[in-house]
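<amino_acid_chain>
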Amino acid sequence: MDRSSLTKLSSCLGEASELVKKILDDENASSETSRPETSSSGGNRLFSALQRARSMLNSSQSSTSGLGKRLNKRERLRATSTANDQGQRKKAKKEDMKAFEFVLLSLGEEDEDEWTISDDKIMLRGLIQLSPESSEADIRRKLGEVTRVKFPTVTDSDFVFLRAIRRKLSIPVTCDSFAYKQLKVVAGQGSIYVKLKPGFECLLENNDSSYDELLTSYMGKNEQVNYSQSIRVSNSQSTSQVDNSQSACQVDNSQSTRVDNSQSTARLGNSQSTQVYNSQSTSQLDNGQSTRVNNSQSTSQVDKSQSTVVDNSQFTSQVENSQSTQVDNNQPTSQVCPEMDKLAEEAVAYCQENNISNPSEILRVIQNKFVKGRNLEVQRVEEVSEGMTQYILVNRKSILETAFEELKEVALSDLQKTLQVDFYGEEAEDLGGPRKEFFRLVLSEIHAKYFEKGLKDHLAEDYQIVGKILGLSILQNGKLPRFLEEEILEEIFSTSSKPNSAIQHLQNGLKCLGIHQIGCQLPMFLHLLRRNPDHMLTVKQLVHLLKPEFSPEGSNSRSLENKVYAAFVKYMREVASGRRHGLSLSSILTFVTGTDEEPVLGFHIHPSIQFHEVQDSFLPSANTCIGCLRLPRPALNVQLPATEVLFSLYDMAFLNTFFGTK
């Protein structure tokens, strides 16, 4: 192309550019703006392209060779591309939900080197939908939801993720967490393979019947059990005086005398069984707390035809020669507690016949069958709890030694009675709260002395009474002993190997309460005894546990109660963050209920917060038997203290674990 042609082309382009510019100027001057914005922007792009083309052609005229030079990378025409327009960004394509197949395997007791994929090991297959934002908790939750359709006792935290390479399975060691990206790497183009944690394989026993129908059926039978065991004939006089200012379960000067010179009077022959007791109990409380005075004499006569029947089975207590049976630590357990073996067999048969595999429901079954006497928990606030109990007196400052001394001499038949605990020099009538406090304290001491640094073979004989205390705590709504190492737990409930002396004594102690028999025959029950390191009480959980009971909306009392409750919630947050020295959220729950965690069977009466008008101090008080925290509220002439002063009073209360002094 010669120079004249280039000049002519440049002139044409200039005229075209001027024409386009004139058109755009006319449109901008017009009052009507009905044209879409995209048209204007399209004209701007055309004008810009023409201007750039003209300048490029003009610059090419400087070439001495007469040839148009090649445009470099930055000079190429890109103005017409909508993707590169200024201020407009290309939106990233959002990944959709992706379906993953998962396979739940049961690998049994095989060594990890022998883990392989085979049809006989596959317990469940399914599909789950995951998004790229799915965290490990989301993935576990979806796995749990699908798995619980068939295996209702499996929880989200029970899964272990596996890597499959040529049908060989292994546990990945390079993943800190199994979020979406990591799981895609582990699964690849195949499935997500999972198994349950060691010892949890028992949860994969399938139930053919509907779990909801089974639970409903079981609860109906459970109510029948409670009713049949509470049959008593008594003549009693009872007075109850309650001041609205305080309410507590506390007793002073109590005596209990049993007829026949402290000999056991439970006899079962062909004719009848008679139990006679005279008891005097006085409950004296300070500051207007509840007072209960009971003078009762009751006689229960049961003949053979009137024996309490549960699930077509008779539960009787046979004591020869009317003498209390004492435990001989050196005698084989099978010879000293045949009754517990029988009760355990009946409980196991009941669970198997009714397909009960939930560990909590198994505990409820054996609790109803094994524990006798007074109800473990207060059933109704306005009712006085009555029934047989096994009384022990312990020293808080030497809880382990005094507990051993008290329980060593208790007859096996009396171990089935509801435990009634008193602390030296403290006022408290045990209707559930002091017993929970006792189990919490003694289990902490047992853990530190007998298990924290391994088993102590030189203290082997002590482990029998340790086993009894663990069994009592499990059965009577105490703290669960979840401090046992997995190896020790498996050895305790193993029947194949010959255990060492400490384990053998521990087994004997658990057999006295039927726990060892249940654990060996119903392995899913052991799920309650395994460690749960993730269990940590949170502010949200504690707020839901302690339900406030406010005055009616709009009243003067309600506005004052709102201020106190707001301060208490703020105090709980400070405790949770560690700003209150020596306190944790468990300390607050312990002060209110006697236990530092929610029982596996829950609270019979839901814990609550009650407000009362301040008398002398804003110091909180509690009734552990019904789980009631009492917070003083301001009066018309008494203002709420400053925040730090109020919190110091709360510290003083929640750091104190005593029930009061006599």
Notes: Residues 98-202 form a domain with the Ubiquitin-like (UB roll) fold (CATH 3.10.20). The first strand starts at residue 98 and ends at 105.
